[in-house]
Amino acid sequence: MIRSFLNLFATLCIAVILSACKTQVSTVTPSELEVMKHHYQEPKLSTWYYMGTRDGYHYFSHMDLPREKRYRIAEASLKWPGIVPYTTDQSKWVLLQWGVQDPNFFHDTNFSRTLPGS
Questions:
Q1: CB under 8 Å, gap of 24 or more: what pairs does 111-115 form?
Q2: Is residue 52 very low, low, confident or very high in pLDDT (cuts 50, 70, 90)?
């Protein structure tokens, strides 16, 4: 009896841990993304990726310390060049030249640059 209880408890703990580790996706507007792309915690590591498009949304990943954050924008509200199918395979994501990845970031005084295709 105790053994079955411990097995059940361990299974529940693993399920809770795995569900907590899953990255949540926030739905945002193009203007909200425009503001976020210039905010970062650790400038040497802050990186934006386009993950692809699926079910009417463009998906983006922002890798920054201490974690990754994911966002989606309705496809109808943002024209995106070079649409590719959504994938969780990071090797297929498109690195975006936003924020500190933008070669003009530290020299540009106009931080209201537009998103590609908008």
A1: 111/38, 112/34, 113/34, 114/34, 115/30, 115/33, 115/34, 115/78
A2: very high
